[in-house]
């Protein structure tokens, strides 16, 4: 099970004004599928903030010394020596698990709604697909995956696509669904 603590800093508190799909359910489904495929043996939780380009640029500048907006930022709560080495979290239960719920704390995700909309248009698919892709991408970062090398990038891309395909959130299907709205 995955718990997503969703906060909207984009346009007030009404999520229905941000996207035309259920952000909570989509984020939970994408995160849960990534964790299922990674073999995560724990219930987990993630904080997810929806924001705009200006705020994500501020955070990117403050945390990464990059003064530009980006689509998504990931802040892992626990550093794994290798991707999806979940057994390592058990060696530091005070730092890796919520003492009240017992859930594995994966970390925080910040997504720019502006970028979701722009990239969906650029790549020719819907905002739900782009949003789910960014959640899957970020959860992979939270469990230790990266894309600093060509091989790492290939692995991450395959894992993202596998998760979205398993959920039926493919470019073709979503484009067809959106054309009927």
- Gap between N and C termini, in Å? 31 Å
Low-confidence stretches: 173-181
Mean pLDDT: 88
Report the β-strand fraction as a percent range. 15-25%
Based on DSSP secondary structure assignment, what is the total number of beta strands? 4
Tell me the overall shape. globular
Helix content: 40-55%
Largest sheet: 4 strands, mixed
- If you compute it from the alpha carbons, what radius of gyration comes out, rounded to the nearest whole angstrom? 16 Å
For the largest sheet, list the strands in their spatial order: 1-2-4-3
Topology order in helix (H) and strand (E) letters = EHEHEHEHHHH
Number of helices: 7
Description:
The protein is α/β, with parallel strands linked by helices and 181 residues long. The protein is 48% helix and 16% strand. The chain has helices spanning 23-38, 53-64, 93-96, 113-123, 127-142, 150-167, 171-179, and strands at residues 2-8, 44-51, 72-76, 104-112. Helix 1 (23-38) links the parallel strand 1 (2-8) and strand 2. Helix 1 crosses helix 6 and helix 5 crosses helix 6 (150-167). 36% of the residues are buried.
């Amino acid at each position: 099970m995955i718990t997503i603590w969703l906060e909207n800093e984009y346009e007030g508190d009404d999520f229905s004004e941000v996207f035309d799909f259920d952000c909570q359910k989509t984020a939970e489904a994408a995160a849960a599928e990534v964790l299922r495929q990674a073999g995560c043996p724990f219930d987990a939780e993630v904080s997810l903030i929806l924001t705009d380009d200006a705020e994500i640029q501020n955070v990117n500048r403050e945390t990464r010394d990059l003064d530009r907006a980006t689509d998504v930022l990931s802040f892992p709560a626990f550093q794994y020596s290798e991707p999806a080495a979940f057994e390592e979290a058990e060696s530091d239960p005070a730092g890796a698990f919520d003492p009240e719920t017992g859930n594995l704390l994966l970390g925080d995700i910040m997504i720019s709604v502006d970028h979701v909309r722009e990239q969906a248009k650029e790549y020719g698919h819907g905002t739900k697909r782009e949003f789910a892709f960014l959640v899957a991408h970020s959860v992979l970062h939270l469990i230790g995956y990266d894309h600093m090398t060509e091989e790492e990038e290939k692995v991450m891309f395959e894992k993202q696509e596998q998760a979205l395909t398993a959920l039926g959130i493919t470019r073709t299907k979503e484009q067809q669904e959106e054309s009927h709205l």
